[in-house]
Every structure is written in C-alpha cells, then in structure tokens.
Amino acid sequence: MGKWFSRILKPEAPNPSLVDIEARRHAEAAAEQARKDAEAARAEITKLIQENQESQQKAVEAQQAAMQAAAAAQEQTHKEMMAIMQAERAATEARSLAEAAAQSANEEAKKRAAEAEEERKRTIAIQEQAKKDAQAAQEQAKKFEDAANEEKRKAAAAQEAANVSKKAAEEEVKVANAAKEEAERKLKDGIQPVVTPTHQEVLAAKQRVQYREDLFHFAVAGVAGGGKSSLINALRGLRNKDIGSAATGVTETTLNLARYGNSNAEYPYVWYDIPGAGTLKIPDWQYFNAQGLYVFDCIIVLFDNRFTMTDIAILTNCRRFKIPTYIVRSKADQHIRNVMKDMGYDSDDDEDEDQKKKLYQTARQQFIQQTRQSVKDNLENANMPNQRVYIVSNETMLSVVKEKRPKKVIDEIELLNDLIGEAQTRRASRDEAASSAKDKKSM
C-alpha cells in the first residue's frame, strides 16, 4: 500500500509539448540568423577596412605626385636663378672691362697732355731766353763795339752747339724710327713683342677673376672649339648637361671669362673657362695679356686638331711669368675613331671583335705618336724646350674623377694626379712663404 501511495504522489516526467518544440525551433532559427548577421557584419567591416586602405594608398600616391611636382618646380626655379646669376656676372665683367679700358684711355690721354704741356713750357722758356740774349746783345752792342764782336763770336759758338744738338736729336729720331721699323718688321714676321702689364692692370685682373689667396686658380685656354668647357666639367665631376656645369656647344660658347668652383670641397680649386682665341678681335700675341692670364696659378693649354701660334704665345708668356703649364689634347676617342676609319674600319660591317680590338690598338698608338711628335716639332720650331702633352678623352676623364675604372685610359689619370700635385706643391710653398714672412715680421 505504501508503494502504491508513493506512486500516486510522484507523477511521471511529462513529455515535451508542441509548444516547447516550437519554441526551441524558433530559438535555433534565431541563433542561426544571429550567426548569419555576425558574418555579414564581419564582411562589411572587412570591406570598409579594404576601402580605407585603398583611400590611404591613393592619398600616399597623391602626396608623392605633389612632392615630385614641387621638386620639379624647385629645380626649374634653381635653373632660372642660375641663368640670372650668370647673366648678372657677365654684365658685371663687361662693365669692369669697359671701365678698365676707359680708365686706361683717360690715363694715357692725361699723360700725353702733360707731356705736351711740358714741351710747350720748354719751348716758351727757350724763346724767352733767346729774346733776353738778343736784347742783351743789342744793349752791349750799343755800349761797346768790342763787346758786340765778342757777342757775335759767342753767338756763332752757340749756333754751332745748336747745330750739334740738332744733329744729335736727328740721330735720336733716326734711331727711334729704326727701332719702330724693326718692331714692325718683327711683328710681320710673327715675332711677338714683349708687353708687361702694369701693377694696376694686375690688380684689375685679379679683381676681375675674383682671385683669393686661399684658393688655387686653374685656367683652361686655347683656340675656339677645343672642348675647354667639356674638360672643365669632367675635371669637376660633372656631365655637360648637369646643373652647374659649364655651357658647351658645337661652336665656341664662352665669349666671356667664366669662373667655376670645384664640386669636391676637399680640393679648394677654382676653374676658369677662358674665351677661345678666334672668337674675339684680339691678335694671338695679345691674347695672353688681354685675358689677364698672368694672374693664374696654373694654365692648361688645350687644343683639338692642331697646335697653333696662339698656344705657343701662351706657353712663351707663361715662361716669362713662371706659371706652370700643361699641354692637353682633347677628344682622343673621336680622333682614334677617325684614324680607324682612315685605316678602312667601317662600323656597319660585321667585323670580328678581335680584329676590331687589334685595329683600335693600332690606331690608338698611331694617334698618340703623331700627337706627341707634332707638339715636339712645334716647340722646337718656336725655340722652346720640349714639354709633355697629355692626351685625354673627356668621358674617360669624368670616369676617373668619379673614381671608376674606365678601360680606355691614355693620360687621364696622370693628368689629374699631376694637377692635384701641382696645386698641393704650390700651396705648400705659398704657406711656407707666408709663415716665413710672419716670423720675420714678429722678429
């Protein structure tokens, strides 16, 4: 009976109803929808992140484009400023030359006027003295007849002395005319007169080239079209089209002296592009003084095709002023190619590479020998001592300056080393002399 009672009091677990099943089904559907919504939200977030990254990338690209445009504008502005500065420098140099010429002409005119005034005063003094002598002679004649005879005798003696003086003056004029004729004859024969600049001309030339004692000044001179500007660019480590390079062209570009600092601060050098002979109305023998070459520390005499009388004149004057010189022949690569063509080489033919190299070596050796012999003969004909000629290519020189290892080197490395050594030696001598002068002054 107890078991039965307990069975009545403890009902059995009910089965799930349809309501519970429906509720669970709805809960599962809601969970599934929530999961799908979460995935859709994550996809939307990913899309937003990608769009944000793309926007950032476009912003970076736009910023880079703006920076490039700014850099281009800055470079154009720099070029324009350089052009303005070069034009101002050319105008200043032209004005300095005109002022110097005007000053020289004014001084010469004043000198001649002063000489004429002195001559006029001497003539007047002689005339006045002659009048006084004549008056004294007349007075003496009136007083004493014997004194008059004595005066006649003195007058005759004076006349004779005057004749002697006149004859001496005529001889001096004859000698002067002979000297003038001799100078003109020498000039016609190509013998250049010696012209020494005055102290004022030296000071004016130094001012014109902006000479500084703490720098070493190289001048590159020679006939027009020899490649002076290209060589200066190569020695400064620049190509012809680089910013700050010397202007170059097929014809002579430099009509005014141009000054260029060295790109490497380790070497305090200044390079000068001297207008080529033939572009200015200046005789060969006046080219050295007219360009003020006597103020430079070292002069490179550059030639392309042939060694000329202008080059000889520069070397002769450099010896007078004890200025070290370097004879350089440019455009070696072009000349060697021309020699190869003369020997039958045709670049359009498919020649064997070994044969081509052999032909190049032969042409190279022939060009070097002909150049050195030609310079030697020209120096001998001018009664000048033999001097080494450096044969270079500007492209190879640029590679040497940039410390590369070009294959077709001739004299580029030796020229660069010799120029640097020359500058260092001269600067050491200058410092030693300055130190010695300072010590003497302190004593």
Q: What is the topological layout?
A:
Blueprint: H1 2-9, H2 18-143, H3 145-188, H4 199-209, E1 216-221, H5 228-235, E2 258-261, E3 269-273, H6 284-290, E4 298-303, H7 309-320, E5 325-329, H8 332-342, H9 353-381, E6 389-391, H10 394-401, H11 412-442
Parallel strand pairs: 1-3, 1-4, 4-5, 5-6
Antiparallel strand pairs: 2-3
Explain what this protein looks like in three dimensions.
The protein is α/β, with parallel strands linked by helices and 443 residues long. It has helices spanning 2-9, 18-143, 145-188, 199-209, 228-235, 284-290, 309-320, 332-342, 353-381, 394-401, 412-442; strands at residues 216-221, 258-261, 269-273, 298-303, 325-329, 389-391. Strands 2-3-1-4-5-6 form a 6-stranded mixed β-sheet, with helices on both faces. The longest helix has 126 residues, at 18-143. It is elongated. It starts with a helix and ends with a helix.
